[in-house]
Structure formats: C-alpha cells, structure tokens
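Why do we bother with holo predictions? Because pocket geometry can differ from the apo form. Keep that in mind while you read this record for nicotinamide-adenine-dinucleotide.
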Amino acid sequence: MKVAVIGSGVMGPGIAQVFMMGGHEVALNDVSEKALADGAARIRENLDLMHGMGLLDKGSGDYMPLLTTTGSLREAVEGSRLVVEAAPERPDVKQAIYNELDKICAEDAVIVSNTSSFPLPDMFPDFRPGRFFVAHFFNPPQVIPLVELVKSDRTDDGAVEWLKKELEACGKKTVVLTGYKMGFLVNRLQTAMMREAFHLIRCGVVKPEDVDTATVAAIGFKSAWQGTFDTMDYIGLDTVALACGAIFPDLSNDTGVPEMITEKVREGKLGVKTGQGFFNYEGDRGAEVLKRRQKVLLEQLKLWKKYMS
Ligand SMILES: NC(=O)c1ccc[n+]([C@@H]2O[C@H](COP(=O)([O-])OP(=O)(O)OC[C@H]3O[C@@H](n4cnc5c(N)ncnc54)[C@H](O)[C@@H]3O)[C@@H](O)[C@H]2O)c1
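The structure, written out:
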C-alpha cells in the first residue's frame, strides 16, 4: 500500500522508515525542502546502520526506491490508504493540515496523528469521524517497538483493527487505549516515576545520578523483559499488597512542575540539545551519548526480535 507521512522532523522520517521496512511505498511530506532532504538522509543512514548490525536482510539501496519526498500534500496523499500526521504539536498547524486533508484524502483512508498529548479526534469532531484517531510512536520510531493506538467510542473499530494488523506486519507491538487520558499510557507511567524521583531528590536521600543508576540497573534491566503485572505475579501478590499498603501513602502527589526543572529551563540548560541539562554534554560528549544510545538501542532491538517478537 501507499502511506503518506506528514512532517519530516524528529519523528516523521523514522515513522516513514517503519512502513518502508514493512515493504510499503511511503510519501514523506513537509513544508521545508531542507527537512525533507535531512529526513531522507537519516532514513538512508539508519537503514544502513540496521543492515550493518544484522537487523535487516537488505540495505538502503533496496529500501530507498520505496520513498518519495514531496512538498505537495496533495501529491503525498494521492492514492494513500494510510496518512500519518507528524507535524508540530500545535493544534492550529494540525487543524490547517486536516482542513486540507479532508478535501483531498480518499474516502476510505485511515488518518492518524502522532500527537503526544492532544485528544485531536475530540477537538476536531467533524474531521473524518471514525477514521481519524491517534497512533503514538516513540522516539526513535524505527527502533522502539511500541505504538499506542487511542480510540474513542466514535472511532471505527475496523479501522483500528486494520492499522493494528498493518503495524504488527511491520514488526511493531501495539496497545489500544479505549479512551483518551492525558499522556496516554506510557507517558503517564513515565511521568509518575519522574514525579517520585524529584520527590526523593527533594527529600535529600538521592541524587539524579542515583535515580538513573537504579532505573537502568534494576527497573529498566528487568522491565525490558517483564511487565508490571507480570512482575507482581513473580513477586507474590501478598507481598505486593503489603508493599502497596506501606508505600502508597508515602508517595508524592505533587501537581506542580518541579522547581528543579523550571530552574534549568530558566538557565537555558535544556539537556543534550544545549550541551547541559541535569548532566553535561559539552564538546563531543553530546554526540558520543547519542551515538552510544543509538547503538545500544539497536542491540536491544536484536534481543527483542530474538525473544519477544
Ligand atoms: N519528538 C518526539 O520525541 C515525539 C515523540 C512522540 C510523538 N511526537 C509527536 O509527533 C509530532 C511531531 O513531532 P516532531 O518532534 O517530529 O516535530 P518536529 O517539529 O521535529 O517536526 C515537525 C515537522 O513538520 C513540518 N511541518 C510544519 N508545518 C507543516 C505542514 N503544514 N505540513 C507539513 N509539514 C509541516 C516542520 O517543517 C517539521 O519538519 C508531534 O505531534 C509530537 O508531539 C514527538
């Protein structure tokens, strides 16, 4: 089938790559020629990296003919059975795109947004009711297996089921949320953990680096292979009940943005992209960290493919 991906920023190219690796033709659209050229270059590079690491049988030369890049939205969606919107997280920008899409998409096209936060089908109820919903990929989308699909009671179940099967055929795992909750599933779990981490740091019992050591050396190490409920069964539910009774009342229920973050933002310390955040990424350090992250995630994907898919 042909898939249109709208937006060639951080997420669009990786999403395009997912469908290319599944053997589909993809038209990548953006208002910026540079974003399209950079996006295509990143796809080529990532395909070759994955091929070199034994994750793909074929290299970029075999996949790239499946990709077209275009500044024309009409050209991108023409003949597309699926349209994935990955434009900036601004409702006004998204609305302008949907107004256009409504005029030019095939009647039976399935249209999804990669939004991280908005209940878009509720915000734009007249836009392709039933056939427009959320498909939330994770960064980097060509690597992280999960896609969250979020439907409401107005969504066409057949459209969700169809996309679920298509994504699974492209090697993805899906979870379907049957209602909108701010942050969907993964970001809610993650922010709950962040809130508790900030709380413990404020209490003075740990530092950020301790939280990170605990996250990767215990929680993450196990969570890659054992889910939350699976873990509870393994611990023993009587023990879990005792732990919940003792720990839940002591957990943070703060609702404000932690001062530690607002302070960093005020100082312009935004993380890897500015060279400093909670940790230091100045000089070559930022590039090194990103390179290592990409390599390690691909090694993890190899294990995932071996044991979990
Ligand atoms: N960045 C992440 O880690 C991440 C993760 C999951 C979901 N998301 C979501 O994915 C979506 C895209 O995020 P991103 O980080 O890739 O954004 P981004 O800003 O990096 O990229 C957006 C791209 O859309 C292009 N664009 C702007 N207006 C357009 C238009 N009218 N038509 C076509 N293209 C247009 C921009 O030129 C840009 O290249 C957002 O909804 C975001 O919330 C982001």
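The chain has 13 helices and eight strands.
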